[in-house]
Amino acid sequence: MIEKVRAQAGSAIFARVAGPEGPRRRERIHGTEGPRRFTPDDPIWRVHADASMFVGGIRALLLQSLHPLAMAGVDQHSGFRGDPWGRLQRTSAFLAETTFGTIEHADRSIGAVRRIHERITGTADDGRPYAASDPHLLRWVHVAEADSFLRAHDRYGAQRLSADERDTYVAQSAVTARLLGATDLPEDVAGLEEALRNYRPELRSTPAAREAARFMLLRPPVPWAIRPPYGLLAAAAVGLLPRWARLPLRVPWLPLTEATAVRAGGAVVTRAIGWAISPPERST
């Protein structure tokens, strides 16, 4: 009975994140023979396979929204409001393909995204032009993601990384970003933190960023049955945001609550998701 409930929970979560093509995509990604850039022993494999990615993903989207040009591209060209789960499923597929897939499949996926980026151009509300293929904007998206995934894994990951492994994760995560067209990428944790600091003068509150935060945190596109666990994930993501990012997004800073209830709730829900989506142990 327990295994049946576990299987149903795992299937529901996987279907929501991976979409209807998820099972076939997973079989293709993990079942195809061929050389891969990363192995299960690599830090990037361990981080991206962990349930803490649910927290890191929400934090990354919140942080990325603070760059007006990056947010303009999302707001004007992405279907994150009309089809938020479709966007999540495409992002999930890209991360899986480029982390766990063969080099051939990873490069094909990277090429497809580059072609999409070449078509995304426009003008932000402040009058500045933007292009999704801009190496500087691609670097920002990467820095926000790498920082978010690593911090979420540090806090909620099942297997913590050593200091050297954290540096290796930053270097390995830069591989795909570089192939997408980003340049001058950090190769270790110190470089990642410096890059994040250097972007701060470019970040600011915009109506689009605040609306995106409200959408993700207050009006999430999830069924009522899974609103409570999603709320715990969202609270855990907010709890990992730096203090300087809170005011522009109009999210509170509650140090005592975040150090106790929020952290405990995030740990519970990530463990539950990890248990639900992991394969059952085989009996001997």
From TrEMBL:
One Pfam assignment: MPAB_Lcp_cat
Domain ER-bound oxygenase mpaB/mpaB'/Rubber oxygenase catalytic positions: 45-269
Signal peptide start and end residues: none
InterPro entries reported for this sequence: MPAB/Lcp_cat_dom
Sequence segments annotated as region (Disordered): 19-39
Biased composition (Basic and acidic residues): 29-39
Protein name: DUF2236 domain-containing protein
Lineage: Bacteria, Bacillati, Actinomycetota, Actinomycetes, Propionibacteriales
